[in-house]
Amino acid sequence: MASRTPNNSNNETNPEADPPQPSELATIGMSIVGTFVAARCLAVISRLATFFAAPALGFYLFTTCPTNETFDGKKELKRVLRGDKLPEDDPNKPKGFFQKTIAKVSASIEAEAAALAGCKVEIMDLYGIVKVASIQHPMTKTAYFWLGAVNKWRFVMAKDFPEGEHSKKE
């Protein structure tokens, strides 16, 4: 059996020999260090962007917050009751001409009845940035909520409230 001895004379005379490959551990270590440095740079950039963007966003919301007079409770309640705010695939949304007409008429009647029954309209101002409006419908025992921001009132949700909760507030 021939022993394996490195042939140093061949490596010394051959200038085109490949340089030694870096170890896998060194490569993984450099990758981890590079990842940490990149993550740290992104975190600093994110903090700077938040530092400059948050006041600008707050100022924009403050200047475009709708006034209390722009909230027409009866009109907004009619929109919700006739199904305008429902998604297109909702089975309760009126589809045809007759269904839409019937929904409009019934929404108008119910909104007028709620106004006569004394529905409560409350508008809560949150630091002048956004406003939350609510209408408590006394006949159906339902509270409807809108969010006022960027010069518009957007319907958020409707929630049923128990009988006792409504009588406590009065």
C-alpha termini separation: 105 Å
Beta-strand share of residues:
15-25%
Radius of gyration: 34 Å
Biggest sheet, strands in spatial order? 1-2-3-4
The total strand number stands at 4
SSE order in H/E notation? HHHHEEEEH
- Helix count, DSSP H or I runs of 4 or more residues: 5
Secondary-structure-based class equals alpha+beta
Global shape: elongated
Average residue pLDDT: 84
Roughly what percent helix? Answer: 40-55%
Q: Give a short account of the largest sheet.
A: 4 strands, antiparallel
Note poorly predicted spans.
Answer: 166-170
How does this model look, in words?
By secondary structure, this protein is an alpha+beta fold. Helix content is 49%, strand content 19%. It is built from five helices and four strands. It has helices spanning 8-13, 24-63, 73-81, 97-117, 163-169; strands spanning 120-126, 130-137, 142-149, 152-160. Strands 1-2-3-4 form a four-stranded antiparallel beta sheet, covered by helices on one side. Strand 2 (130-137) and strand 3 form a beta hairpin. Helix 3 (73-81) packs across helix 4 (97-117). The N and C termini lie far apart (105 Å).
Short description:
With 170 residues, this protein is α+β, with helices and mostly antiparallel strands. The chain is built from five helices and four strands. The chain has helices at 8-13, 24-63, 73-81, 97-117, 163-169; strands spanning 120-126, 130-137, 142-149, 152-160.
